[in-house]
Amino acid sequence: MTVGEGKTWTLPLLWAMDSIRRMAQVEAMVYLTVWFVTNIAITICSKALFKDLRFPYPLMLTAIHLGCTAVMAIIVSYTGVYAPEAVTVSLLKHCLPFSVVFTLNIWLSNYSLMFVSINVHQVIRTTIPLFTMLFSWLIYSERYPLGLLPSILVVIVGVAVTVWGDFDLTSLGLALVILGCALSSLKGIMTKKVQLGLHTIDVLRIVCPISVLQLLLAALLDGEFMGAARRHKELEWGVLLTQGLLAALLNFVSFKCAHLNSPLTMNIAGNVKQVVTPVFSHMIYHTQMTLVGVLGLLATLLGAVWYGYDNSRFKAAEALSKFTPEELTPEPGEETGFITAADIELGDSIVINEAVSHQVVCPIPGTLPEDS
């Protein structure tokens, strides 16, 4: 079937499609904002637990985080909000490798905060986008346009300048943060793969209990479990529970964000968070930002905007490349040549020849954009 034959897209339908696209973008932005704020709160609270409240139990802290997430996921699964997936042996096997990466990622992020400052922790984690590009290529043979690299480098340099200061860094701390960066990137990529066909709540309902068992076993072997048990009367259980609930919210939102946004977009948003977190840290500990730090912050925000523009441009070019010149050209005598539903597959972008002189890109109704 050629373009323009069959049932055409009417203007009201096009407007409806555009409304759906905009609603999807707003949804992605809302989830990304909640993820952003909660992530900052968790990072600062975790550091405060280790430093101010003297809670040297990262395995137990991570188990509390994921335990709260598991309980919330199980409760939600009984509310009728969605139809829960039946837990089978094959499903557990499908989720088990991801649960290991998921557990190690959160534990290493908490554990490394015991050895490095928030500033050092954040600046090293700006390498995550590079790990994402590398793993996408090595594991899934996916490639990002090299044209995105300059904007990513600007973000990395901006964050490095912002948090540059007292690098009280040990070899162990450096190794832990770098390994955490690699696992964080891998977790972001695997989230989109393991979530295919599964609801976000199902992923958390299945993965989190497995992760809690892994963490409790590790805590027993490491001695953390007995250490925390001996000090149970001294521990601030209200603070721990509050942080566990925040972590549960973060895990819910993180999975939803990973579904609505590409891994690289999440990494860039994470890099902006890497700048804002030290700013709040400076405010809490009554230190002042230098002029160089402010310039670094501006450079990071500029790089993030640059990345968003370039990524949108590359996506539009990729969508256009799926069609031949004949498909993009209206037939003689036609004022409009709209593409029909039969011409495309669900999930692809479609190019609508709104007039002879120009085209606009619009998603199929019912689908979500890969990038907000």
Automatic annotation (TrEMBL):
This is Triose-phosphate transporter family protein. It is a multi-pass membrane protein. It is found in: Membrane. The lineage of its organism: Eukaryota, Sar, Alveolata, Apicomplexa, Conoidasida. Keywords: Membrane, Transmembrane, Transmembrane helix. It comes from the Eukaryota. One of its GO terms (cellular component) is membrane. The chain crosses the membrane at residues 28-50, 57-76, 96-116, 123-140, 146-165, 172-191, 203-223, 289-309. It comes from Gregarina niphandrodes (Septate eugregarine).
